[in-house]
C-alpha cells in the first residue's frame, strides 16, 4: 500500500530531515514510528499524505507517485487517508457532530447517508451521546476521539497519526490506543509516530525506528527501544 524508494527530504533551510529511506507497508499493517526528537518521524509521516514532498525518491500509495501528483489531485488523495494530530485540530465553533460530518459534506455525500455514517462513527469512539457538544466542552481524550472519528468517517484504507497521545494522560492514552487497535482490526492500515514507550511495548506491532533521517530498526513485533 505504501512504498518509499530512496526517499530524501531537504528543507529549504538546508536541514536534511529524511536521508535515504526505503520501506514497504502492506495493507492492514499497524506500524509504530519511533525515534528521538528531531529524527525525522514527522517529516516521514507528512510525506505519506503529501503535506511535504520528497526532494528525491518516490513515494507510492496504492501505485500513485505522490511526488508527481498534480495539486488538484491532492484533495482526492487526502479523502482516502485519515490523519490524526497531537493537538486534535478540531473546528472550535462546530459541534462534535458537525466536526465529523464536515469531511462527508465536502464530498457532497447524501444528507441521510451523512447522518448514518456520523452517528455510527461516533458510536464506535463512544461519543454518540456528546454529539451536540462543542469541542471546548470535552476533555482532551474526548477531543481526540472526535478527531479519530473525523479521520475514519470516510472509511479510509489508511490512517496516519502523529503523536496522537502526546497531550493525553496515561489512562486516556490507553483508551485512544485501543480505538486505533480496533480500527486496525477492521482492516485499516495504521501508521503512528509515538513516544509512548509503555504502549509500544504492550500492544505490540511492527516498529520502525528513525534516527538521523534513516531507518535504524524495522522489526515485526518490535519494542520501543529507547528511554522515554
Ligand atoms: P521528529 O518528528 O522526529 O521530531 P521532524 O521530522 O519534525 O522530526 O524534524 C526532522 C528535522 O527537520 C529536524 O531537524 C527539524 O528541525 C527539521 N524540520 C522539520 N520541519 C521543518 C521545516 N518545515 N523546515 C525546516 N526544517 C524542518
From TrEMBL:
The record's section on Gene3D superfamilies has:
P-loop containing nucleotide triphosphate hydrolases (3.40.50.300)
InterPro entries this protein is in? Answer: AAA+_ATPase, ABC_transporter-like_ATP-bd, ABC_transporter-like_CS, ABC_transpr_LolD-like, Cell_div_FtsE, P-loop_NTPase
Instruction: State its location(s).
Output: Cell membrane
What are the alphabetically sorted keywords of the record?
Answer: ATP-binding, Cell cycle, Cell division, Cell membrane, Membrane, Nucleotide-binding, Transport
What Gene Ontology molecular function terms does this protein carry? ATP binding; ATP hydrolysis activity; transmembrane transporter activity
**SMART domains per the record?**
AAA
Residue span(s) of domain ABC transporter: 2-228
Example GO biological process term? cell division
Task: Quote a single Gene Ontology cellular component term.
Answer: plasma membrane
Question: What topology does it adopt in the membrane?
Answer: Peripheral membrane protein
Top-level taxon of the source organism: Bacteria
* Pfam families (alphabetical): ABC_tran
Q: Does the keyword NADP apply?
A: no
**Assembly, per entry:** Homodimer. Forms a membrane-associated complex with FtsX.
The family note in this entry says:
Belongs to the ABC transporter superfamily.
Stated role: Part of the ABC transporter FtsEX involved in cellular division.
Q: What is this protein called?
A: Cell division ATP-binding protein FtsE
- What organism, scientifically named, is this protein from? Bacillus canaveralius
**Encoded by which gene?**
ftsE
